[in-house]
UniProtKB/TrEMBL annotation:
Belongs to the CDC73 family. It comes from the Eukaryota. InterPro entries: Cdc73/Parafibromin, CDC73_C, CDC73_C_sf. This is Cdc73-like RNA polymerase II accessory factor. GO terms for biological process: positive regulation of transcription elongation by RNA polymerase II; transcription elongation by RNA polymerase II. Transmembrane segments: none annotated. It comes from Ordospora colligata OC4. GO terms for molecular function: RNA polymerase II complex binding. Keywords: Nucleus, Transcription. Residues 131-248 form the Cell division control protein 73 C-terminal domain.
Length: 270
């Protein structure tokens, strides 16, 4: 962590290329996972953390573009402050030894064995994930019909009002909790969200209490279900939202396949 602190203070000592990371000219293991206390449900590789530290002064949109260009996974917006604070507040527990010699003043000569204490191999991805649906019973998808919708793409109507505030389902082998109210969601809860469905009503997202909607829609697969000639609002067109047409009370098999593919990809990136 002391090395991460040095990179935080002086990003120029670090060079990051896809699959190859060096600090002061000395290569380090970029694929290992760095574990931070405050990001319990999200793990990052050393490569991701170092690349973020090198570009943390950039605007978030610019930083995301750089990540895409380099093929490096991004650090979630909600995790960035947590990571910086943990690096800054980390206190070394090892004994400091001063050696009389200029070569020991450069981090390229230091032992990187400490990384084993802050890195861990990726294990099984456990726990559950969230899926967010509209509250409106007239929406093409809601808590009442989500099971059937994900099974065969049918958007059942007049199925009543759900008495539950969540529905637990199994989707592609994953444990998923479907909710229609996220006002109380924490940043940790949002990191578990793998899919969002919109009905086009602005009030749906106005109640989310989320400051950076663009970051949510850029990192979570989001779908707007449209019936007939219904047009999405300007707020939908402003974000990274995929429009799916509902015809004859259902979506196409290919659209359902896209939803499954996007959700699977999101889970694998968690």
């Amino acid at each position: 962590m002391d090395i991460l602190n040095k990179v935080l203070r002086d990003p120029s000592v670090c060079q990051v290329q896809p699959g190859e990371v060096s600090i002061a000219g000395k290569p380090v293991i970029s694929g290992q996972t760095v574990k931070f206390i405050g990001t319990e449900t999200k793990e990052y590789t050393l490569e991701q953390v170092l690349f973020y530290l090198m570009n943390r002064t950039e605007k978030y949109t610019t930083y995301m573009s750089l990540c895409r260009e380099r093929g490096i996974g991004k650090i979630y917006y909600t995790d960035q402050k947590i990571i910086i604070e943990e690096i800054e507040n980390f206190k070394e527990t090892t004994v400091s030894v001063e050696v009389d010699g200029p070569e020991f003043r450069y981090i390229g000569q230091q032992d990187y064995g400490y990384l084993e204490s802050v890195c861990k191999k990726e294990g099984m991805r456990g726990g559950f994930y969230y899926m967010v649906v509209p509250q409106s019973v007239s929406s093409p998808v809601n808590l009442c019909n989500i099971r059937v919708f994900l099974d065969n793409g049918q958007c059942l109507v007049n199925v009543g009002i759900s008495e539950a505030n969540r529905v637990e389902i199994k989707f592609m082998g994953y444990d998923v909790v479907v909710v229609d109210d996220v006002k109380g969601f924490t940043s940790e809860d949002w990191r578990r969200v793998v899919c969002v469905f919109l009905d086009g009503s602005k009030w749906q997202i106005n109640e989310w209490s989320v400051k950076d909607l663009a970051e949510i829609f850029d990192t979570i697969p989001t779908f707007y279900l449209s019936r007939g000639n219904q047009h999405e609002g300007q707020f939908v067109r402003s974000y990274n939202v995929r429009k799916i047409q509902v015809r004859d009370g259902a979506i196409s098999k290919s659209d359902l396949d896209v939803i499954q593919e996007k959700v699977r990809g999101c889970v694998l990136n968690k």
